[in-house]
Structures are given as C-alpha cells and as structure tokens.
Amino acid sequence: MKILVFNAGSSSLKFGVFDMSIQDSRVFKGEFEGFKNGSCTLHFRIGGEQGEELNRNESLDTVEDAIVRVPEILQEFGFADFDAVGHRVAHGGEQFHDATLIDAEVLKHIEDCTTLAPLHNSTNLKAITISRELWPDVPQIAVFDTAFHHTIPDRATTYAVPKEWRDKGLRRYGFHGTSHKYVGLRVARELARPVTDLQIISCHLGNGASICAINRGFSIDTSMGMTPLEGLVMGTRSGDVDPGMFTYLARELGLSVEEIEYQLYANSGLKALAGSHDLREVEQKAADGDADAQLAINVYAYRVRKYIGAYAAAMGGVDVIAFTGGIGENSASMRRRVCDKFEFLGLHLDDDKNLAVQLKGFEAPQVQSFDSRIKVIVTQTCEQLMIAQEVKYLQVQREQAEPKKWYIPVAVSARHVHLSQEAVEALFGKDHQLKKMRTLSQTEGWAAEETVEVIGPKGSFKTVRVMGPTRKQTQIEVSKTDTFTLGVEAPVRPSGKLEHTPFIKLRGTSGELETNGLIIAARHIHMSPEDAGKIGLKDGDYVDVKLGDGGRSVSFANTLIRVKKGYTTEMHIDTDEANAAGIAFQTKGELVTNETRGEADIMTKKNMELSWRNEP
C-alpha cells in the first residue's frame, strides 16, 4: 500500500510517500519552505530515512502553489499512483477520535473548527481541496491533531466559564496529538515495556510547543487548550496569558480583539522577548550578553518546567520525560535547563550523553545518569509516519468484509474490597480467616461473609463487602461518585496496578487500618482463553463495547481484555457506568474490535508491535 501524506502549515508544506509493504517505509520526503519574492526552497530525500538530503529552489509564491506542484515533483522521481492520501488536520473538535474518510460532511466540520485554529485548519482545508482535485479517485483521509487527546478527563478539559459558552464548544482540546502519540510508542519500545505500564511526559518543543501527560497509554492532560495558543511560550505565540489583558489593552491602547489575537499568535513568544523566533539565534544572543535573550531563555525553560511539575503531580508520578521537536531534539542546553530543577524527583542528567545527541532517524537515546530514577529520552517526532499508519489501518478496515458480531454478558460490580492476610488480621483479629458466603461468576473469587467500613475525610460507606481469597495487596474498588462521598480522589486503574494510589481508612469488627490501594476499577472483560482465541483477542488488548441499539445505545470505549484460564467471559462495569447505560444488574453488549485504531487511542504492546513493523 502506497500512501501520500500532506502536512500543510501556514508557511511551509511537508509531504511524504510511504510504501507500507517495506521496512524503511518513507520512500520520499519533501518540504517546501522559505516562501519569499516568488520563490522557495524544496528540501527532499529519496530512498528511505538514510537517503541523502537534497535541496533546490522552486519558483512558487505560496503553499497552495506548492501543493499543485507536488504531483509533477513526485512523477519526476517515479511516484505516480497512490492507494490513499492522508492529511494532517489540526482541529477536529469533539467529533473525531480516529482517522476519518473525508467527504462533504467532514469537510464542513473541519471548516466549522477553523475559528478554533485559524492559522492551521484553513491551510489544511486548502491542501485537502486541492488534493481532491488532483487525485479525485483516491481516498482522502483526515488525521486530527486533537484526536489523541479525547481521553483527557472532563476535569482537565473544562473551563470554569458560563454554561452557554461551554455549550458552544468552549473547552480544552489539545494539539500535537500525532506527535505525542508517536513519542509514547517510541519511548515504550526503547524501554521494552508496554506503554500501558508507563507514566510519560512528552515535551514537543519547537516553534509550536506543547507538553502531554501520557498516563499508562492515555493522554490525560496537555498544555494547549481550545486553540494552539494556550500553554508554553513558543516561537511567535505567547502561551498562557491573563485574559484580563484584552480589556486592559482595548482601554489603554485602543486595540481590537482581533488585533490583540493576531499579536499573541504572530508577534509574541520568543520573537517578542528576544527579537527572534529561532531559539538558535536567541541562544547565540544570550551567549553574547544580550539581556533580553537571556530573559527569553529563562522564561521559556521556566514555563516548560512548570508544566512538567504539574503533570508529574497529575499522574501521581513520572517514569520518563521525553523531548522532541526542533528545540527538544537539538538544544542540549535547553534540555539541561529544564531537567536541572527535578533532582528532588530523582532525575539526574548525564551531561556527556546529553551533549552527544545526534538524531538522524529513529534513534531514541537515553541521556540520564545511571542513578537517575526518571529516564530522559530524546527522539525525533515522526508525525507523517504515524499519519500513514493510521491511514493504512482505516483502509484495511474499509476493505474488510462485515466482521462477525460477538455479544458478551455485562454485569455491574458494586464497591468492594480485596484484603491481604495482614489486613484481615488487623481488621478482624489475629489468625482470622475469611469465610466464604457465596460463589461468583468468576470462580477463582467469592464473596466473603465479612464487611468493612470504608472511611474517607468527608464521609464513609458501611458494610462494604470483602471479596476472597486474600491477595498480596489490599485493594478498594469504588465508583467515581463514591469518591465524592468519601472526599478523596482515586485514579482509574486496572486491578492490581496500585502504585501511587491514595490512602483510605478501613474499619472492621476488631480494628482499623490505613492503607493505600483505593482505585476506580477500569472497565474490563474477563475472558476465557477459548473465547479469546475465537474472537482473535489476547490479554492486554482493548476493545469497545456497545450496549443497546439506535439513538439510545451507549458505547464503552477502551475496555481492557483480561484473559486467564478459568475465567468466564463477562464484562464488569461499575455502578456509575451502569447508571449511564440504564443497566439495573445484567445485560449483553456487542463487542467491537477495532484493529484500525492501532496506536490511535490505546497503545498496548500488541499495537506497539504493529506500529513499528515499518521501522528499520
């Protein structure tokens, strides 16, 4: 499968041809930049990632002219026929979570989102429109920068503004999703660990810059917001500012809202602080003693550190800080400035390794010292490769026959407690053994006669059922609503993943115990090996499950598959999820296995392997 990928920016056009049947898949890479006085520069490379970088001048005025020129250039080097064309689209709003075939309705939605990303979506639309005219019979597919961030919880996407504003779409969306997704996968592969076991802070630092908290495979927060203006200091963008400045500048300088917005996008950031949007120039000025440049570097690094610290707290820990983007990849001094303040977290940078970074392809060197608890990884971002992979997966799905439907039982799991033997004795007396009251659908477990009171700083729940047999670690499973009654925040976790979980008090008939292990159990499906084999799933996969039909149906995305001998196939959801779906006790749901998602949402080990089969 040969895929052409367009990444159209306001002042440059990147494009590439990917042959998805070979290992070194990017067979042509091109970029038009430097449009000035009717000419620009074309940088290009033929023959894979290790091919020679070449450049030449082209007589073109605009990015639109460059797009029209692309077919002629590709034909010059023997690339004429494509199975699909993929387009990077900055803003997809709330609607698009995956790669999407472009039709009139999708085009209209992208156009509607242009007000949220005026510098990006308008150019993306021009690229799509011209491309559809140039290749009218080739499927055109949009891959959205916002899609990866659809897993961010409401508490992180919601602005505290009037409801009528929020109803108009005023919320945080996030950008650079394709880049952050790639970084999460690349880091997991470098460490030979499933990304669902890792807490990663991905720092995309370039002319546009953002940070993403990737918590066990999910984006849970990112620095850009409703537009690409929020967050870090960037080349020409301000990042975070006090919105009160709009009325102040209107009153004091007579500026319109449009004038202020333009200045925040085009003449702020490093450009405003140091006179240049290019950090290389700013660093040279700073070395020459320029006080403005020195301040700009300090402001830039401080903002990055502040977000990293916030996201380490939001995730309850961090395993990896990853740097990508033009600045993240190439500025050893900026990486050092950012990392120096995190020694209190156990991060120690190795200066020699940091200075030695030279990225040519898919390298991902670690630059921390041997005694650092947190790993620091530097890697190029490969957004076009990720776009090509998502396009391929969508095309495969479109070409497949109607998949067989699978239906599984769905049961509601109320709040309950699993105890260690030490906890049993602390709560019910020395040498006490749990007494079996009744068996459960999963025969390895059973409901015990014993109950405990779960006590939080705000409220408590009496007679919470204990489940047997005992475990190595105590685990308390509650719903999101329960956490508000208790007055404590709990993470959504698969069973047994108890690192950095909050403490809670338990009270039994003979004593009390303070223990960590409070979680909101991630929705999951217990599955027998026989059923998993029939459906084509394995332990650790994620699927969607649809309950009901028509307009009243509810979909539960990102449902974890847990395969084990002795399991009875059954999905477990908590009481909040049951209430949302209108389930009283038990029902059946349709299993939706979505192979095209790959690394789009959940980056499991399986999907990580799929993603890297094209890498040399």
Measured between the Cα atoms of the first and last residue, the distance is 18 Å
CATH top level label of the domain at 169-381:
Alpha Beta
Given as residue ranges, the uncertain stretches (5+ residues, pLDDT < 50) are 594-616
Class derived from helix and strand content: alpha/beta
CATH superfamily of the domain at 169-381: ATPase, nucleotide binding domain
**What's the rounded overall pLDDT mean?**
89
Strand content: 25-35%
CATH third-tier fold name of the domain at 169-381: Nucleotidyltransferase, domain 5
CATH architecture of the domain at 169-381: 2-Layer Sandwich
Number of helices: 20
Globally, the shape reads: globular
Q: Rg, please?
A: 26 Å
Major β-sheet annotation: 9 strands, mixed
Number of strands: 28
Helix fraction bin: 25-40%
What do you see in this structure?
This protein has 616 residues and is an alpha/beta fold. Among the domains are: 169-381, Nucleotidyltransferase, domain 5; 404-592, no CATH class. It has 20 helices and 28 strands. The strands form 4 sheets. Strands 15, 16, 17, 18, 19, 20, 21, 22 and 23 form a 9-stranded mixed beta sheet that branches. The protein has an 8-stranded mixed beta sheet with strand order 5-4-3-2-1-6-8-7, sandwiched between helices. A 6-stranded mixed beta barrel has the order 14-27-24-26-25-28.
Describe the secondary-structure layout.
Layout: E1 2-8, E2 13-19, E3 26-36, E4 39-46, E5 53-58, H1 63-76, E6 84-89, E7 100-101, H2 104-112, H3 121-134, E8 140-144, H4 154-157, H5 163-167, H6 177-191, E9 199-205, E10 209-215, E11 218-222, H7 245-253, H8 257-266, H9 269-274, H10 279-287, H11 291-315, E12 320-324, H12 325-330, H13 332-339, H14 351-355, E13 375-378, H15 383-399, E14 406-412, E15 416-418, H16 421-428, E16 436-439, E17 446-455, E18 460-468, E19 475-478, H17 480-486, E20 492-493, E21 504-507, E22 512-515, E23 518-521, E24 524-527, H18 529-535, E25 542-547, E26 554-563, E27 570-573, H19 575-581, E28 586-592, H20 605-611
Parallel strand pairs: 1-6, 6-8, 9-12, 12-13, 14-27, 15-18, 19-23, 20-23, 24-26
Antiparallel strand pairs: 1-2, 2-3, 3-4, 4-5, 7-8, 9-10, 10-11, 14-28, 15-19, 16-17, 17-18, 17-21, 21-22, 24-27, 25-26, 25-28
